[in-house]
Amino acid sequence: MDICICSGVDIIYGALKTFNIELLETASKVKQFFDDDAQKKIKLLSRFFKNEEDKKRASLSRRSDDPEWFEDLETFAETKEDFMRKRSSGRIQRYFYDTKDKIRNSHLYLENISARQSLNSLLQNFYERLKRDEFFAYYFDRTCSKGAICDNSGLFVCQGLWNNDMCSYIAGDIESDHQINPYTSKEQRVIFCTWNLDHRIERSRNIIPSLIKASEICYRNSNYQINSEYFYDLLFTLKNLKFVHIVCHDKNEHKSAICDFKRIVIKEPFTSERRNKTRFASTLKNSINGVQLKRHKRVSEIYK
Predict the structure, then answer these.
(1) CB atoms within 10 A of CB 191
(2) Is residue 159 part of a domain?
(3) Digit-coded pLDDT (tens) for 45-63
(4) Is residue 293 part of a domain?
């Protein structure tokens, strides 16, 4: 006795044929569709249905509508958007305070009074501007039509390595995991923490040293001032930031991406404030030289 082993596709085909002869043509086409690389097509269908379910969950916003999404979070946020805004602004705040610490620990800041005052003024300028820009909280806010990195459903797509125009992992690949919607579920929200805002021109290796160099130039030549607009854009805006999957976050040195030294300082307009600053710098320099001269005379007298 021969035993016939039927595949899942054969069973579907047989059921459709038995149920209604008029569906035979449709059943035949369905079987033909699945016979050609059935495993891949079933996987695509499963992905489609999962995506439809994810879309429904992602569309929920309030804590009361999707309490599972807010599990284990210490936050007073009542909507997913509010929480994501805090996540975005928190990252930018960390960039600011880390930049501030590195500048304040630099040799120039510690040893040069004039440069220290200039850098403190610059940091204050950064902070005031960041407050006005709400620390770019809208980067992760799907309800923000301008400036958000995601679309209005909350989907983020990897922007690729710092030296590429786009992510090579998502080009034509429907199964790529280099896209994420943290608004969908608690699990996606947690995985989202591994994604990074990557500085194309690196903050620690290039931007901060260039900023300190600009301060040194301005100290030596009072006709110039630090180009705060240029450094603000490099440190905190999407002009130099790319949002990337952890695989596309290259932590090696970005050797070909460096600050433009023609832009780190700008000519300072001649104003009464500049005149006073020049006088103060000159007075301070003369005072320091005078103290050093007196010390030299005392030492000379002692060893006569």
Answers:
(1) 15
(2) yes
(3) 445 445 678 889 999 999 9
(4) no
H-helix or E-strand containing 226?
Answer: strand 224-226
Q: What percent of the chain has pLDDT over 90?
A: 65
- Print the domain residue range for 168: 69-268
| Residues linked to residue 225 through DSSP beta bridges, in sequence order | 266
The answer to whether 199 and 239 have CB atoms below 8 angstroms apart is: no
Note whether residue 294 is domain-resident.
no
Asked, for residue 88, whether it belongs to a domain, the answer is: yes
The DSSP line for 28-84 is HHHHHHHHSSHHHHHHHHHHHHHHHHHHHHHT--BTTT-GGGGTT-----SBHHHHH
* Structural domains in the chain (count): 2
pLDDT recorded at residue 49: 43
Please, which residues have CB within 8 angstroms of residue 192's CB and are 6 or more apart in sequence? 156, 180, 182
Closest by CA to 216, choosing from 126, 109, 125, is 109
Return the pLDDT at 117. Answer: 94
